[in-house]
Amino acid sequence: MLTTRENELLTxxxxxxxxxxxxxxxxWIPAATSRTLIADGTxxxxxxxxxxxxxxxxxxxxxxxxxxxxxxxxxxLALARNExxxxxxxxxxxxxxxxxxxxxxxxxxxxxEQFAKTIKVNxxxxxxxxxxxxxxxxGGAPAPFPDFPFTHLAExxxxxxxxxxxxxxxxxxEATLDSSHIAYLHRxxxxxxxxxxxxxxxVHAPEFRFVSQPYGFSxxxxxxxxxxxxxxxxxxxxxxxxxxxxxxxxxMGSFQFLVPIDDVTTWWLIIFWNAHGPIDPAVLEIQGPxxxxxxxxxxxxxxxxxxxxxxxxxMKAGSFSGFRxxxxxxxxxxxxxMGPIADRTKxxxxxxxxxxxxxxxxxxxxxxxxxxxxxxxxxxxxxxxxQAHAGVxxxxxxxxxxxxxxxxxx
Length: 410
Hints:
There is one protein chain. It contains ten helices and 18 strands. The chain has helices spanning 4-11, 18-26, 112-116, 169-176, 182-185, 190-193, 198-202, 312-316, 327-337, 354-371; strands spanning 29-33, 44-48, 51-57, 63-67, 81-83, 86-88, 95-97, 102-104, 126-129, 132-135, 158-165, 207-213, 216-224, 230-238, 242-244, 252-262, 265-274, 389-393. The chain is 19% helix and 25% strand. The chain folds into two domains: 28-135, 3-layer Sandwich (Rieske Iron-sulfur Protein); 149-402, Naphthalene 1,2-dioxygenase Alpha Subunit, Chain A, domain 1 (Alpha-Beta Complex). Strand 6 and strand 7 (95-97) form a beta hairpin. The protein is an alpha+beta fold.
């Protein structure tokens, strides 16, 4: 159980909220999928941490990332013409180059060229990697870029779904580390996940063990098998809001990013990759609805008045949860049902929630370190080999053989 103050510290990300300031000032933030930005195409509105931006792909392929409001009169630059490597505001024709330079102010009658040089448009460093556009919102020199395994791969090696969820980021982040819910909420899908998930479905109360890591922590969910050995599902929490959980397919990795749009909205990314060849296009099939829009992967299923689209007839016919649109629709519904920001002061937790408790303490510590002027990540590192692992060990004590990655100096 948390105090009201702790819950506020964990969940609030807008403005001067300590958690949001720590995230923006320390980490590169996923902001858009590369596939949604077309050269000279429609600028895309992006909202992060309660602030509004616009992303666009210029004529030459570069990505620009500006504050949404035109510095002249505040018109949305999502309405702008995107051509000749610049955005041109449709209100008065002012033009802003993809580099962030103001290059034309046609309504200035005197010394217009010199005047344009005095106009500042807030623009931000970006990187494209792994099918994502990442932005640095922290000011000053950007931190080293997080070279996650999938950021080095070709497009055909990655499968990615994205969706917006009307809840605080922490509700989704907690769900990704909650190994004990799989046997119940996702019971309808256990058989489709393969033999690697059999013990997960059979043993409902895993024992959790942890290893602190420079990037966050490794969380081992341990389940005893009938043969006396121990089944281990080792997830990784990577600050500020990234998790890697084991997949059912050898050689395939996964990450989930729960990016705060504002206090009560989250951009949820689920990414699978195959480091050794093309990704199986079916990998996302049980995650979301058939033929789903990959950038609106889990569309709204209704509100509380319809039990968020729950099918009670399907439950009577054998479905446990009553949601047959995919794994992520089940996760989304339970998170939304908690309310926009869950009240964690009223929780009554159990041993199966150990990873949730660890996550909260890690985030609170990171925010406190940042407030005190201390580095959140004390070690420069490469994330290139970082991903979750699962396996079977002969003794409980050897579970750490699956924990963490070989983190190289950055």
